[in-house]
Amino acid sequence: MNEHSKNKIINNVKKILLNDENVIFAYIFGSYARGETHRFSDIDIAVFLKEYSIDKEFELLDKLSPAIPIEIDLIILNNAPPLLRHKVLSEGILLFCKDDDVHYKFMSNTLIEALDFKEAYKIIIEGYRERLHAGRKNS
Predict the structure, then answer these.
(1) Which domain holds residue 115?
(2) Which of 24, 17, 32 is nearest to 104 (CA)?
(3) How many CA atoms lie within 13 A of 79 on its CB side?
(4) pTM of the predicted model, to two decimals?
(5) In this structure, which of 7, 18, 33, 34 has its CB flanked by the most CB atoms within 10 Å?
(6) What is the pLDDT of residue 92?
(7) How many domains would you assign to the chain?
(8) For residue 77, what are the contacts with CB-CB under 8 A and spacing of at least 6?
(9) Which CATH number belongs to the domain containing residue 124 in this structure?
(10) pLDDT value at position 14?
(11) Per residue in 115-138, pLDDT tens?
């Protein structure tokens, strides 16, 4: 996909989401954010909503799908796992933000939760390694 087509898709996404009063901020991430698109690439879009419901998620997809000629992977940041939220923040490109305070609070909470999760994950992995090592000694 050429740069012009890629930018047109991103601008369409931004315009649609900006016009939705329920979307507070939005990111693109994945191959579009890394500049590594190919003809089978989807577009990864992450949004934070004032109010979440499954109906609102489907409404957003209904707005985006006709205007975007590729597959859309829509992530609702309000209920995404901490490590996915952290990935979006660290690797994504912010398209817009309508409320800096909400965005800052989201970033702070995500960082705290992601660090807590990573620490817990390290402890779990270390426990698995110890049991695996102990199992090998007993064999």
Answers:
(1) 3-138
(2) 24
(3) 7
(4) 0.80
(5) 33
(6) 94
(7) 1
(8) 46, 47, 48, 85, 88, 106
(9) 3.30.460.10
(10) 96
(11) 766 666 566 677 777 777 777 666
